[in-house]
Amino acid sequence: MFDFNKNDQQQKNSFTLRVIVAALFAIGCFGLLSLRFWVLQVDRHEGLSARADSNRLAVVPIPPRRGEIVDRNGEILARNYLSYTLEVVPARAGNIDELFQALTPIVFISAADQRRFKRRAAESGKYASIVLRNNLNETEAAFFSANSLRFAGVQLRARWVREYPQGKSAGHVIGYVGRISEGDVSALEERGEIGNYRGTDIIGKKGIEKTYETTLLGKAGLEELEVTSRGKPVRVLRRVDPTPGSNLVLSLDMGLQRIAEEAFKDLRGALVAIEPATGDVLAFVSQPSFDPNLFIDGIDVESWRLLNESPDHPLINRPVYGTYPIGSTYKPFVALAALELNKRRATDLISDPGYFEFGGQRFRNSGSTAFGTLDMHRALVVSSDTYFYSLGPEIGVNNLHDFMKPFGFGQLTGIDIEGERRGVLPSTDWKRGAYKNREQQRWYAGETISIAVGQGYNAFTLMQLAQATAVLANDGNYMKPHLVRTIKNARTDEQTQTVVEAAYKIPLKKENLQVVKRALAEVTVSGTAAGAFVGAPYTTAGKTGTAQVYSLRGAKYQSSAIDERLRDHSLFMAFAPVTQPKIAIAVIVENAGWGGSVAAPIVRKVFDAWLSRDPKNKPLQSNVSATRPAEVLVPDSTREPARTRQTP
Amino acid sequence: MLILLLLTAVGMVVMQSAVGGTDARFADQARNFYVAFIAMWIVAVMPPNLILKLAVPFYVLGLILLFAVMFMGETSKGATRWLNLGITRIQPSEMMKIAVPLMLAWYFHSREGPMKFLDLCAASVLLLVPFLLIVKQPDLGTAILVFGAGFFVIYFAGISFKFLIPVMLIGVVGIGTIYVNQEQLCDDDFDWVVLHDYQKHRICTLLDPSTDPLGKGFHTIQSTIAVGSGGVYGKGYMNGTQTHLDFIPERTTDFIFAVFAEEFGMYGGVTLLVLYLLLIFRGLAIALRAPNYGERLLAGSLTMVLFIYVFVNVGMVTGILPVVGVPLPFLSYGGTALLTIGIACGMLMSISKYRPPQSQG
């Protein structure tokens, strides 16, 4: 089968033959290429030349207009404004200094503009279109257009620029757009979407702008132009219009958002408010915030340094990124687990001497108060650690894990914003996977005890706590939490709801829910959060909590600030009204100490605002408000109609 | 040598136009040529049998680096091709363009005598391992060059035409089938199993570039317009409008031929091809006159690598081959590619210089 050459001469002959074949092959291929030249340069060229002597074809992309973002009442969070730029192609503009002189009476060009232009012209060559001035006002643009014929090589361009009129408010929700980076380019190339970005120079970098990038972007159009040999367009041969990006209607209420943000004053922390029946996120606060406008054209070094190096970490999206042991706010869920799993009845009495003894070790109540004999109701109202310590071993870590999982603890809630972290919902399986060391992989019974009071390995995001609170308020119906309520097609005005029905329902017994809810309602009347809710015209169910400090980003704190930053985090979870809840909330205030004194008053302000607002002045989305009866703010009014839209 | 200088001159002149008068990259490219020529000279003074002796360590080193890339390489533009050595980043696949033909030539040289089936298998393994590693990176352009280099060694070593022709026929029929069934194949849901998604897109847009004029077909459309607008005589040096109006993507690297063809027209294009052809003939002549088996194989295959470079690049710019990242020798901007070509030419010169077989055994 194989040619085989016995001696050198024969081998050489065979080789010569092969060289000749290879040479012929090369000639053949090059001939093919020459033929192709002929096809392109002679055959097709003639066709073009007959039409327009020296004109050429060019495909020019038309970038789409980015979608806008508004809140549930139509208040604008992100929009575009037209900005005119004056661009010059040096090769076609003649003497640059003369051009500047001629232009000055029409459009003001500062010395800085001229310097920048000359620098860029030196960098990018004579044929590139270089920006001479940004942000021309309408008058200047009109003036120039009228005189444009006098200036060869100078072009007025209009482009859409992004703007965030709310400033710092809801900065983490909107996120921001920025210049397309090299990293973005390779990611787009990999997904085959780079073509859609021709002509576009910004891309969503954070928040909703990033999460809904494809929806907001739209689809690029293109123009096939005939251009003269000097690059001036002569006529359009074909045009495909761009499809503008869709507009987003958020579930957020900016009025409420601002009230919540102001309630924090100078404190650091996070707050998430959810409408339990729909999963609408009403407020989403991460304090301190930042102004997304800074990022649009590339942030300047000084602002970036301030934001990035601040010990307050304003760039961290706390509700979804910060994970904490949520402390006592976990107790209502543990209590529910005990009831549902028949591990303890609500009426069972437990004696609380101020500590729980297990395996010769004493687990103390925080503050070491002895509460005496307690049933479940009282244990929740006074927040007895001992009661829940004792529940830990009775329920068992894996049972607790399985019960908590559908509430969303230690799971991605699936909220539509990037950068969500999962956290940790401990179980024996988790521990085996998380540690390498044999010894560390073992689960110790004592660990279950601190788990049951929300400490230990538990690490949840505030978003998860808010969602679990909403699910509890909604009797076990899991509505996927969402910031974007509807996507509006900018052209057809067609609307798409992001979340319509419950993802699933956790089977919970009514009487068990009653026990927990009643106890939580009592917390705001005579329990740990009573102070914050004195005189409220509605009923509230809530639970305070204190989280042992768990730094967001390791220990990079300034020494002078250490003491304050080692204080515990203050937590509060709540929903109101107790029956037919309209709002569920979770809040954490970092290093603020005990939950009842700092976190609960913030919630009070938000509840007051939301539950006392006049639905006529602040319409919800039109179709809802039409079918919606005037709101009766009578607590516990069981006859009050359920919110209609998606109540399961 | 004369041809090399001529091509270099053409390269520099075209580069001048492609970068549009900015001389940063122009000077850079001049420096690259300088480095490449020094490398060529160093290799050229090495006796060919020394070069052949270096084959094994060179090949093994290249292979180790390729594996290293797979496990700890740097990713950029969706492909993992680079290895960060702390001081500088290297692209081991580039090295394999030389190492593979060298290794195979050495192998056949040392096995001088009958080419058995076993030899073919061994050679195939030597070729396919680096080839597949590079495909996996993924870097189709380099993979094709490496494969072509190795293939030509095996071809020159005397694989039977009886074996070769059926294989080529299958290839032709295969490509024909793809062409006929392109619509089904290019359907989004159709999974090509072996090829990456972006490679599939490249082939599909080649078949019909107008399906995605802003995305995957953009390069091809713009470059064929540029070439076509050049006409018979071209628009004249520095007068290419497509080029200077920024329509041509990557006009200093892979698509530099579009600049050239637009400005110098069909005559220019054909002349350039003739220059390359002369270079190839010269290489093949060196191969014919080489004193021993290994050198002959090496010279022949290196020459044919040059041929593949040119053919694939020009084919891609004129839209008859898919867009794969293959530079045009001597013209495209880029230090590494020039260095590779310089070394290859150096080897050819070394082989041609040490022709008297008595002196070198």
CATH domain class name of the largest domain in chain A? Alpha Beta
Number of domains of chain A: 2
Helix content of chain B: over 70%
Strand arrangement, largest sheet of chain B? 1-2-3
Gross morphology of chain A is: elongated
Average pLDDT score of chain B? 70
Largest interface: A-B, 59 and 73 residues
Q: Per DSSP, what share of the residues of chain A sits in E-state strands of 2 or more residues?
A: 15-25%
Please provide the count of β strands of chain A. Answer: 27
Distance between the termini of chain A: 76 Å
Number of helices of chain B: 16
Which SSEs are present, and which pair or pack?
The complex is a heterodimer of chains A (648) and B (361).
Chain A: H1 8-51, E1 56-62, E2 69-70, E3 76-88, H2 90-93, H3 96-103, H4 111-124, E4 130-136, H5 138-147, E5 154-163, H6 171-174, E6 176-179, H7 182-191, E7 202-206, H8 207-211, H9 213-217, E8 218-219, E9 221-227, E10 233-240, E11 243-244, E12 247-250, H10 254-263, E13 269-275, E14 280-287, H11 301-309, H12 318-321, E15 323-324, H13 331-340, E16 350-352, E17 355-358, E18 361-364, E19 372-374, H14 376-382, H15 385-395, H16 397-404, H17 428-434, H18 438-441, H19 445-451, E20 460-461, H20 462-473, E21 477-478, E22 484-488, E23 495-497, E24 504-505, H21 510-523, E25 541-547, H22 562-565, E26 569-576, E27 583-589, H23 595-612, H24 622-627
Parallel strand pairs in A: 2-12
Antiparallel strand pairs in A: 1-9, 2-3, 3-4, 3-5, 6-7, 8-11, 9-10, 12-22, 13-14, 13-27, 15-20, 16-19, 17-18, 21-24, 22-23, 25-26, 26-27
Helix pairs in contact in A: 10-23, 13-15, 13-21, 14-21, 15-19
Chain B: H1 2-18, H2 23-45, H3 48-53, H4 55-72, E1 74-76, E2 79-84, E3 89-90, H5 92-110, H6 117-136, H7 140-157, H8 161-180, H9 182-185, H10 197-207, H11 218-230, H12 241-244, H13 256-289, H14 293-317, H15 335-353, H16 357-360
Antiparallel strand pairs in B: 1-2, 2-3
Helix pairs in contact in B: 1-2, 1-13, 2-15, 4-5, 4-6, 5-6, 5-7, 5-14, 5-15, 6-7, 7-14, 11-13, 13-14, 13-15, 14-15
